[in-house]
Backbone:
């Protein structure tokens, strides 16, 4: 008897064709989807079955004829007879490989290990003997206590290793454990090998600590990279309006003499909270005199005397007083909402100046942004700091910051006769490069102001909003007056960066304004 390898549906069609007796080999083989010789062979086997039995076979008997399992061969039958004795020989602690080695001692020309394992698995399904192979693995009592703690841990890696060690020691198979923890059997065998060689210390996850020197080098590279992003690519010989990663890599090596790969530049930029889209849009200054203006400001700050003050000036607003969105603590599953269309309760512009050496903010409210408000600020600070020798004002390149009317006013107040008569300091301007708001330190203070008292607010009137802003600046000035040594090192409220002048800072986030 020769068992067929046809599918069940084709066997059913072949048997039905034989029972009907109307057979056309060519047409029927094409309909069933098999070769003509295959169909002839099956019809011949069914015909021999009819001749031997002496009667016509039914459809069911024909189908059962092809599904009868083949007779067991001599080698397989001999293996099945040897297995119970081999298992009894090891007295309950054995592995499949140990059984196979004992089998090969009896039958040197017998099955190889893979064939032996397949026949053993098939025999285990049919035998009534309740026995499973044991893995020779033991865990000490001290390690068992530690593994129980790992199993209750929230660390998944510890839980996985604890499950493997405890379940293997309990006699579970590697395949079952691999399915349970969703790991490969090879990974489990590797953990078992590590435990046998090094114990639990080898299984613990190693924590790598980066040296302080390496961390300092990485920090320096990040600062230098931000300095490059602040400059235009044309300053480094690239005919582009925006930076690319490979251009930054080339420019970094030219400027600092240290090679930095493109992937590492991408990692550094992302770690600083930037995405490349923002770097092209916000962080680049097109001013051709960027370096000269920046060097001038840095030289002033480095040589700032005890009778000199440096002010970072800007305006916050205009913004409407109405219900604002923002971050707030809410119950899980709930969310704060505010109407898109609202009636404004008024409009505010806050003009302010931050003195960098003492971190004191001077502010007032303006109706519009123009030269008159800048003159008003200069007069206010000139009177308040009348005991100083010189006052520096640094602001962005807005039109009202460099108007003809403002220059004429500065010529008047800087005249020696006028200063001697009114006892006022010299006023000197240190303008920032064009489109370099990220260097304006007061933007960091405005960001903290917005997140503290503007976002998620719903003031009843302009007066209530002004009172909140006044209190915010009063508390901030009081803090830095009481802690002058920490001024510039402590972020006030939610300020984006430390309130100090550094060319690698990005003090302004456009999403907050």
Residues:
């Amino acid at each position: 008897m020769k068992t067929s390898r046809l599918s069940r549906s084709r066997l059913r069609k072949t048997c039905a064709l034989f029972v009907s007796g109307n057979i056309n080999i060519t047409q029927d083989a094409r309909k069933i989807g098999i070769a003509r010789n295959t169909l002839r062979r099956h019809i011949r086997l069914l015909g021999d079955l009819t001749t031997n039995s002496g009667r016509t076979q039914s459809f069911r008997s024909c189908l059962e004829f092809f599904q009868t399992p083949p007779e067991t061969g001599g080698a397989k039958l001999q293996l099945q007879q040897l297995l119970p004795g081999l298992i009894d020989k090891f007295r309950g602690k054995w592995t499949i490989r140990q059984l196979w080695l004992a089998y090969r001692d009896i039958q040197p020309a017998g099955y190889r290990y893979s064939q032996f394992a397949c026949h053993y698995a098939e025999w285990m399904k049919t035998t009534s003997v309740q026995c499973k192979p044991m893995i020779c693995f033991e865990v000490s009592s001290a390690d068992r206590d530690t593994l129980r703690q790992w199993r209750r841990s929230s660390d998944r890696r510890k839980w996985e290793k604890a499950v493997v060690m405890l379940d293997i020691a309990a006699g579970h198979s590697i395949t079952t454990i691999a399915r349970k923890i969703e790991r490969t059997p090879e990974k489990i065998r590797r953990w078992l090998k590590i435990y046998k060689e090094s114990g639990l210390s080898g299984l613990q996850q190693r924590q790598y600590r980066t040296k302080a020197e390496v961390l300092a080098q990485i920090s320096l590279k990040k600062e230098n990279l931000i300095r490059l992003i602040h400059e235009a690519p044309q300053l480094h010989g690239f005919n582009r309006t925006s930076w690319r990663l490979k251009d930054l890599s080339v420019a970094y090596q030219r400027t600092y003499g240290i090679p930095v790969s493109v992937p590492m530049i991408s990692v550094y930029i992302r770690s600083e909270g930037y995405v490349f889209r923002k770097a092209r849009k916000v962080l680049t200054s097109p001013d051709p005199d960027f370096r000269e203006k920046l060097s001038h400001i840095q030289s002033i700050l480095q040589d700032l005397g005890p009778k000199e003050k440096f002010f970072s000036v800007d305006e916050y607003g205009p913004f409407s007083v109405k219900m604002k969105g923002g971050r707030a603590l809410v119950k899980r599953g709930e969310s704060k909402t505010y109407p898109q269309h609202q009636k404004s309760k008024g409009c505010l512009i806050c003009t302010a100046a931050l003195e960098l050496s003492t971190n004191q903010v001077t502010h007032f409210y303006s109706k519009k942004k123009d030269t008159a408000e800048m003159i008003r600020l200069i007069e206010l600070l000139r009177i308040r700091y009348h005991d100083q020798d010189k006052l520096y004002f640094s602001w962005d390149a807005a039109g009202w910051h460099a108007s003809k009317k403002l220059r004429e006013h500065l010529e008047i107040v800087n005249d020696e006769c006028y200063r001697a008569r009114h006892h006022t300091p010299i006023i000197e301007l240190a303008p920032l490069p064009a489109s370099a708001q990220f260097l304006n330190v007061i933007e960091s203070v405005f960001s903290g102001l917005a997140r503290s008292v503007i976002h998620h607010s719903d003031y009843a009137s302009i007066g209530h909003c002004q009172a909140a802003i006044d209190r915010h600046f009063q508390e901030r000035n009081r803090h830095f007056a009481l802690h002058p040594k920490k001024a510039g090192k402590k972020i006030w409220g939610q300020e984006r960066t430390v309130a100090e002048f550094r060319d690698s800072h990005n003090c302004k986030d456009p999403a907050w304004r």
Observations:
- The beta strands are 308-320, 347-355, 360-366, 390-394, 426-429.
